[in-house]
Design brief:
- The complex is a heterodimer.
- Chain A contains 4 helices and 5 strands, in the order E-H-E-H-E-H-E-H-E.
- Chain A is an alpha/beta fold.
- Chain A has a 5-stranded parallel beta sheet.
- By secondary structure, chain B is of the alpha/beta class.
- Chain B has 3 helices and 5 strands.
- Chain B is globular.
- The chains are: A alpha/beta, B alpha/beta.
- The interface between A and B is medium-sized, with 17 and 16 residues.
Amino acid sequence: MDISSKKTKKIGVILRQNPYGSNPMAHEALDAVLAMSAYEQSLTVIFMGDGVFQLLKGQNSQAIQQKNIEKKLAAFEMYDINALFVCGTALNQRQLTVESLSVNANILNQPNLTQLLHSQDTLLSF
Amino acid sequence: MPRSILHTVNQSPFSHTALEQCIQCYQENDGILLLENGVYGALLSQPLAQKMAGKTCYAITADINARGLPAQPLINDITMIDYDDFVHLSTQYNLVNSWY
């Protein structure tokens, strides 16, 4: 058995939560993604629904005493997490453009987004 | 051969966007399982009832009964299953994704 030929899994992470509020899920989800990146699998992160609000530029969360999501997202590049996708429908619904976003993400139309989800080996939803 | 997803939805379409986003990501050969408050998606009165047509839909019987839904007009062609069936069902799809 050739132990050096590990099969990498394609892990799709779907993020649909708002960045702030009483539910700390957004932070915990990003922490999980950062932790997963250590295992050298093929990580794809997809922002859908209100999850796209995590990507807005210029967040200043100090006064609400919550850690800053924008800063945590900035760490993705350092961790080599580059396969970031955003649901174009969600952006349009919220009248957001690529200029509004703090990360370099690929904007997908619905058919391509659906196809991307179906091409993963595993899906995790936060 | 594209992979098949079993989508599980546990929130009501009257108050959450889970079912709506699930339907947008549904592809032929996928399935939708309604459970917990997601079973309100089985009501004919729900805003996305038309969009459920032609899709493979399941619902957890215990959740449907708990909420008194059998007395209400429900969408056709939803297969009622129990949790043991759910386990079996999840092995018949390549992927399982929870919308909540």
